[in-house]
Write a structure and sequence with these properties.
Radius of gyration: 22 Å
Low-confidence stretches: 1-7
Structural class: alpha/beta
Shape: globular
Number of strands: 13
Largest sheet: 7 strands, mixed
Cofactor: pyridoxal 5'-phosphate
Order of helices and strands: HHEHEHEHEHEHEEHEEHEEHEEHH
Number of helices: 12
Family: Belongs to the group II decarboxylase family.
Pfam families: Pyridoxal_deC
Strand content: 15-25%
Helix content: 25-40%
GO molecular function: carboxy-lyase activity; pyridoxal phosphate binding
Distance between the termini: 44 Å
GO biological process, one term: carboxylic acid metabolic process
């Protein structure tokens, strides 16, 4: 069982987990029950906590996303979905009658938030790249000009790794007559929210722009061994959400009451060990390897697409489900994707490509079954099926 588990871990290609980590220095922490209760910035009665480290992590991301220490509030979430649930909830509390706008390729947790909070939600069309179609966004905004707008902006979509054009989203809002006091933007940066600041010439996600919150996952690019995330919002928004809890001797504005106190320690350890330069080096490696994979797929006659600001390579869905399970690929319709993380090097990509090419030679050898057409999903220029070669 242990050997099988190890093989499965080594072949993770379709999910955004950075398995290149070593937390041996922190193993003794498993002897403690560490629970961060209530507000990270306010003392509670529970003594075994890591709030100082939690605030240290938050300060690190506040510098990354350019917001002053006395202007932000945040906490370490238990997962990326919780960050999205919190960001959308803050938007809803700021604008109780606001309409939620999210592209159809947004993470499912955004639409879960809409259901949980009973929000009116407009699902916006996307471009072939997967980013939000601002022409359709404008049309839907104009349908609800009398109501404030709550927007989810994707900093890397789940399937295609597409980055919504934040500047164009803001301009579209302004063109439709929405002043900055009538919209709230939550940025879902689950994977790429940490990568994009280190991509040369990439547009900035920053609180110097009129955004309301940003969330990022800690178990993805950072490489934390347990699910967790970071959620930052403007301090001025949080009073609408916070309530005093006598039982904790603190106040609470989080989604979950108890929070994993180990996660801030692991995050703080990695952020300080690698630093900005370390993450920049890893981001460059991932983007370089993603281009390598995309080029080799295309050279082999396999449909593939790679967005400019992404390490997510989208390709045709393998015909054999055993191959999909072996490489732990995430699939949607005729698409699969490989997310190139720091732990996915050239050697692993070559192994994947060799197995895929060998498999295709068997799956499609008699011409009865043909490779899927991906023109609708990826554009004719990225499709190599019999109709679009």
């Amino acid at each position: 069982m242990q050997l099988t588990h190890q093989i499965n871990v080594e072949l993770v290609a379709g999910y955004p987990y950075n398995l290149d980590f070593d937390y041996g220095a922190l193993t003794q922490l498993q002897h403690f029950s560490i629970n961060n209760l209530g507000d990270p910035f306010i003392e509670s009665n529970y003594g075994v906590h890591s709030r100082q480290f939690e605030v240290g992590v938050l300060d690190w991301f506040a510098r990354l996303w350019e917001i002053e220490k006395d202007e932000y509030w945040g906490y370490i979430t238990n997962c990326g979905t919780e960050g999205n649930l919190h960001g959308i909830l803050v938007g809803r509390e700021v604008f109780p009658d606001g309409v939620l706008y999210a592209s159809k390729e947004s993470h499912y947790s955004i639409f879960k938030a809409a259901r949980m909070y009973r929000m009116e939600c407009e699902k916006v069309e996307t471009l072939i790249t997967g980013e939000i179609d601002c022409a359709d966004f404008k049309a839907k905004l104009l349908l609800h000009k009398d109501k404030p707008a709550i927007i989810n902006a994707n900093i890397g979509t789940t399937v295609k790794g597409a980055v919504d054009d934040l500047d164009l989203v803001i301009k579209t809002l302004e063109d439709c007559g929405f002043s900055h006091s009538r919209f709230y933007i939550h940025c879902d940066g689950a994977l790429f929210g940490l990568m994009m600041p280190f991509v040369k010439l990439a547009p900035k996600v920053t609180f110097k722009k009129p955004i309301g919150s940003v969330s990022v996952s800690g178990h993805k690019f950072v490489g934390c061994p347990m699910p967790c995330g970071v959620q930052l919002t403007r301090l001025k928004h949080i009073n609408a959400l916070a309530s005093n809890v006598e039982y904790l001797a603190s106040r609470d504005a989080t989604i979950m009451g108890s929070r994993n106190g180990h996660a801030p320690l692991f995050l703080w350890y990695t952020l300080n060990r690698k630093g900005y330069k370390g993450f920049q080096k890893e981001v460059r490696k991932c983007l370089r390897n993603a281009h390598y994979l995309k080029d080799r797929l295309r050279d082999a006659g396999i449909s593939a697409m790679l967005n400019e600001l992404s390490s997510t390579v989208v390709l045709e869905r393998p015909h054999d489900e055993e191959f999909v399970r072996r490489w732990q690929l995430a699939c949607e319709r005729n698409m699969a994707h490989v997310i190139v993380m720091p732990s996915v090097g050239i050697e692993k990509l070559d192994d994947f490509l060799d197995e895929l090419i060998q498999g295709r030679a068997i799956w499609y050898k008699d011409d009865i079954v043909k490779p899927p057409c991906l023109a609708v999903d990826l554009g004719a220029q990225n499709c190599t099926c019999v109709l679009h070669k």
